[in-house]
TrEMBL record:
GO MF annotations in UniProt: 3-dehydrosphinganine reductase activity; nucleotide binding
Listed GO biological process terms: 3-keto-sphinganine metabolic process; sphingolipid biosynthetic process
Protein family per UniProt: Belongs to the short-chain dehydrogenases/reductases (SDR) family.
Compartments it resides in: Endoplasmic reticulum membrane
Presence of the UniProt keyword 4Fe-4S in the record: no
Main location: endoplasmic reticulum
SUPFAM superfamilies on file: NAD(P)-binding Rossmann-fold domains
The keyword Ion transport is annotated on this UniProt entry: no
Protein name in the entry: 3-dehydrosphinganine reductase
Length: 365
């Protein structure tokens, strides 16, 4: 016979148990969350999460603009550097600057590979060449920088052709490279165990992948696509615990680069008007901030204050840089966007009223 419970006490005990679990679970969760936050925040650590000295870095799109600046700065930090783009003359000039910046000129090595990132299967060939040059070892860090932009209105004649071209260079150029290098890094014969120095795969998006504005229809979706791929791969690399790889994605604002000069030739004036709130920066500055973010171990690499705010506003299921700050800041961003969007849309309507129907406005060519 069971004496331990009576008809009276049992429901009470059940209630008490439910009550205590309904409290203890959230409390335990909050305590665990705070503890793991403190552990992962890295607030007190100044560890360099991406040492490059003596390691080999491959960058696409590094003959001009931010990629070139990044290659030079990584050379200053002691990296061996491989730069990839199409034009050989510009590659040679850039490589001379990269070489001249070397920290240890007698031991660091440098080379370039000419390739068009928009060509199907280009990356497997580039990686094979890079490995042969690097004494049979794959590069330790791959940074996809190559990109282009042809801003125009979506109703313009050439917008869909431009969109396909932008997608081939910006998205598939990085997608193919990431696949080629991951097939090396993640291969069983290249396992280092979970404590091995991680490899780094870096994508270059744009602030427009966080907040889209009028006139970048052919371009912005390519950078959103990169964000989707980067989030996917940030999770997928965890499937290979013995082959540690860190994925990162950089979100630059306006970079005063040769590419920026080119895109401004066709950029609608209304786009120029709305993007003027994000201060334009030199390629050196953007590269320096991006590398600092990579060294700090960030997944989402912001290079400006607005970019930092925008990131927190769209994070969804992306890995966080700092769960506490990102969550608290995330509560405020919708309030900012309420005013920003109203302001931008009223500027657009005002311009249409002042300058006439967009089809009848003079076209930039
Ligand atoms: N400029 C800006 O305002 C912003 C730029 N970004 C992004 O940052 C990155 C760097 O931009 P930015 O500094 O302006 O770069 P630039 O446009 O100045 O330079 C582009 C580089 O990529 C190479 N490249 C272009 N197309 C190809 C191709 N099909 N195959 C191989 N290489 C190619 C170019 O060399 P070559 O022509 O010889 O091939 C060059 O080295 C890009 O991904 C860009 O989309 C993001 C936000 C803002
Ligand atoms: C909290 C949020 C505040 C929102 C303020 C909005 C300001 C809009 C700035 C848009 C800047 C776009 C820079 C990237 C440009 C680029 O990628 C191209 N130049 C490349 O072609």
């Amino acid at each position: 016979m069971d004496h331990s419970s009576s008809a009276l006490t049992e429901p009470f005990m059940e209630q008490l148990k439910t009550l205590s679990t309904s409290w203890s679970l959230p409390v335990a969760a909050i305590v665990a969350a705070i503890a793991s936050l403190i552990a992962t925040m890295g607030l007190f650590s100044t560890k360099n999460h991406m040492p490059v000295e003596g390691r080999t870095v491959l960058l696409t799109g590094a003959s001009e603009g931010m990629g070139r600046s990044a290659a030079i700065q990584l050379s200053q930090k002691g990296a061996n550097v491989i730069i990839v783009s199409r034009n050989v003359g510009r590659l040679e000039e850039a490589l001379a600057d990269v070489r001249a910046a070397a920290k240890n000129p007698s031991t660091q090595r440098f080379t370039y590979i000419s390739a068009d990132v928009s060509e199907h299967d280009y990356a497997a060939t580039v990686i094979a060449e890079a490995i042969a040059w690097n004494g049979g070892k794959s590069p330790d860090i791959v940074w996809c920088v190559a990109g282009m932009s042809t801003p125009m209105l979506w109703t313009d004649d050439d917008s869909v052709a431009a969109a396909r071209r932008n997608m081939d260079v910006n998205y598939f150029g990085s997608a193919e490279m990431s696949r080629a290098i991951l097939r090396e890094w993640l291969a069983p014969e290249n396992s280092t165990g979970p404590r091995g120095e991680p490899k780094h795969l870096v994508f270059t998006a744009s602030m427009l992948a966080l907040f889209a504005i009028i006139g970048y229809g052919p371009y912005t979706p390519t950078k959103w696509a990169l964000r989707g791929l980067a989030d996917t791969l940030a999770m997928e690399v965890n499937y290979y615990p013995d082959n540690p790889v860190k994925v990162h994605i950089v979100y630059p604002g306006t970079i005063v680069s040769p590419g920026y000069e080119r895109e401004n030739k066709t950029k609608p004036d209304i786009t120029v008007e709305l993007e003027k709130d994000e201060p334009a920066e030199s390629p050196d500055t953007v590269a320096r901030r991006a590398i600092a973010g990579l060294e700090a171990g960030k997944y989402f690499v912001d290079v400006s204050f607005l970019g930092r705010l925008m990131q927190t506003g769209i994070m969804g299921g992306s890995p966080r840089n700092n769960w506490v700050l990102d969550t608290i800041m995330g509560w405020f961003i919708p309030i900012i966007y309420f005013f920003v969007l109203r302001g931008m849309n009223s500027t657009i309507v005002k311009w249409a009223r002042e300058k006439g129907h967009p089809f009848t406005q003079p076209k930039k060519k």
